[in-house]
Amino acid sequence: MMTAPLIELRDVSKDYRGVYAVRNVNFTLNKGEIHALLGENGAGKSTLTKMIAGVTQPSDGQILLDGKPVSFQRPAEALQNGIAMVFQETSLVPSMTVAQNLYLGDEKLFNRLRGLYIAAQQFLSSLNFNVDPWANVSTLGAAQKQLVEIARAVRQKSRVIIFDEPTATLTPEEKHYFFSLVDRLRKDGVSIVFISHALEEALAISDRITILRDGELVASDVTSKFDRDGIIRAMVGRSLSNELYGRKRSDADARPPGARVLSVENLSMGSMVRNTSFSIYAGQVTGLFGLIGSGRTETAKIIAGVIKRNIFHGGELRFGERSVRYREPRPAMRDGIVYVTEDRKAEGFFETMSIAENIQMGLLASGLQSSNVVTQTEAREVTAEWSKLLQIRAINPNARIVELSGGNQQKVVIAKSLVQKPKLVIFDEPTRGVDVGAIAEIHKVIQDLADSGLAVMVISSYLPEIMVLSDRILVYRMGRVVEEFTPGRATEEKIMYAAVH
Amino acid sequence: MSASQTERRQGGFKLTQENIVFFIALLLFIGFSVLLPGFFDTSNLLSLVQNVAILGILGIGMGIVVIGRGIDLAMVSTMALSTAWTVALINRGFGTAEAIGLGLAFAAAVGIIMGVLVAYVEIPAIFATLAMSTVIYGFGRLALVDLDVIYLPDNAIWLRSISNSFLGVPLPVIWFSVLAIVAYLFLRFTKWGRYFYAIGDNRAAARITGIPVRPMTVIQYLISSMIAFGAGLITASLLASVNIRVAQSTMVYDVILVVVLGGIGLSGGKGGVRNILVGTILIGILLNGMTILDMPFTMQNIVKGTVLLIAIIVDSLANPRDEQTAQQGDI
């Protein structure tokens, strides 16, 4: 390179309790380039960029900005130095309007809202983003929130903008506007780091591509040196990943449906679930694909009694032969429906408790424990059994759950549900924030459950995961099932098309 | 995991708030014993324990609610009014057992109402119980008792006897010990006890796991109200009277002090009976020492408040919030 890089990372590592999320990575970002960062789930892309943006600090190595070593302790420090990040999970204030969010932190002492709205309106139109600046952020869908996030980063006139999977929730039209915006920013000399799962996007818009695998850098070069197959080879690399998502299922692989366990008829809840109907059968995995905000999670939560469907015109839910309306998760659990949450920290595990206590809590709630006296012996036995089945790795069963890696935490949450001897298991994003090794193990658990005759429902927004797990694929859009595929008939393009249009 | 962390775990000793408070209590105890004449004296030590027994009993009730991430600000009102009614009924000629039964029923009703308000109506515990505290006091003063101070009649021998001594140990101390053991066993070895921890730790997760969160919340307040009634009976027996104006005093904050000082975090899911004992002992030693020193009441409040602040500061320095384990999700 002729010019010195704007940002340089030298041998940067980050470990969480000895588990490396990023290991000895060298990364450079030049002025006015679009640098795509690719890799599988859990490859360390988000962690790497969070270190640049000051959200986390590297445990080892150096970050150089304009050739000078820097160490940002807070995102605000990075922002002062012109580095902005657009996060995967939105970080807007939901009770404020779009305009207020755009100018958050830059208000004058006496904030004149009218001027703010006019400025926001002009700014959003200049970006071609169709978002109402007067709207409350809490009323926006996931895609519009993402647009507001992007607009906020652009408005701050940063030298570097990091986009963490910005296009996942956008429609094709919005994507088009986003890419032209990115192009414009590049011409203005802004450097962009672009994290994506969509390889075509990266190939189309980036100048350089860096690929991470399991926290390590495997390839970094100008985009013209890559093609789609080359990228996939670099991303997947070892056989484990091939095993994970490489296999294409045919109709012959699919398990035949057993008895109908659950039938959902005309189910409705508020504006999230609208007159959806489908059935779940025993002995097979039903995959539920949909973009974020399409109502998949809400449907699952209604089935498991976590939230309630509408009283009027709410439709019907038949579990086995009975028509059911659960107002609490407890009766649903007692009937044999368990829900493994997508957000394990908020509603999955008990963080002050050990692994054993967490699993035992599931057992206690199910009423299947051996005696009325709660004993450590039983907790240890149950934990030993499930640790072996799910390969939970910890120093000892009394380790606190917060000390575990994401994969092991997820396994504990799964064990806590499976110990209740369910008939229908609903997995909501079972491998979110889970390392590659654990993904394979969790997938195996899911397959084994279906083989043993249970009805399994898997919700995922990661297409390869749905493709490799499901015996039937249901596609969700706008609060209802819009299309059903058999594994042989499904392709990524077809499913995505159904989910978007 | 780094070497120092392993060491700390294997050593089996951690600088928790409980241990810190215990050390402060020990230091105070040794200091007072050496410096204050008459402190290290059997009769003084017994009166020390007896004086904090009531606080300790209330602390156990409060502790159970706080573990479930609630708070019962009406405990002292419940205690005062339910026992005042019991004593008033005895004065009106009811049998002791009937009067106690009615008083207990009143306390239980109060607990259930508060529990329903918190669990089903979903009012934050701090507001529901604060409002209930005033309602109980007003209702009791209006409908249950005529006077602010009600004296125990001479013929209530049975009720008087619960604060006697047994083998030289004041009975209130024994009641406190028995309750502490029962509460310990309850919290540790019963399903409901474990549920309380789960609910306090993560209410949403407890619900999804299938724990009956709402009924359990009601039971928490039921237990704390009934324990309050018990504490009230012992107080009535000790003083041979009930002064309902205690409902308007700052006593409930002393109860919270005992719970929080011992290390049961107000965020729920943490701590146990041992923490309450440690907190109670420290407060007992402090109060007793300050009384012997003849310290004015306002000064005592400053000392109590300062001790609580020190315990919390030392705890936050010794156990800083761990950002790395506190966050997870995408790596």
TrEMBL record, chain A:
Keywords: ATP-binding, Nucleotide-binding, Repeat, Sugar transport, Transport. SMART domains: AAA. Pfam families: ABC_tran. GO terms for molecular function: ATP binding. Signal peptide: none annotated. InterPro entries: AAA+_ATPase (IPR003593), ABC_carbohydrate_import_ATPase (IPR050107), ABC_transporter-like_ATP-bd (IPR003439), ABC_transporter-like_CS (IPR017871), P-loop_NTPase (IPR027417). Belongs to the ABC transporter superfamily. This is Simple sugar transport system ATP-binding protein. It comes from Kaistia dalseonensis.
UniProtKB/TrEMBL annotation, chain B:
It is a multi-pass membrane protein. It is found in: Cell membrane. The chain crosses the membrane at residues 20-40, 46-66, 73-94, 100-120, 127-145, 165-187, 221-244, 250-269, 276-293. The keyword Signal does not apply. Keywords: Cell inner membrane, Cell membrane, Membrane, Transmembrane, Transmembrane helix, Transport. Signal peptide: none annotated. Pfam families: BPD_transp_2. Its main location: membrane. This is Ribose transport system permease protein. It comes from Kaistia dalseonensis. The lineage of its organism: Bacteria, Pseudomonadati, Pseudomonadota, Alphaproteobacteria, Hyphomicrobiales.
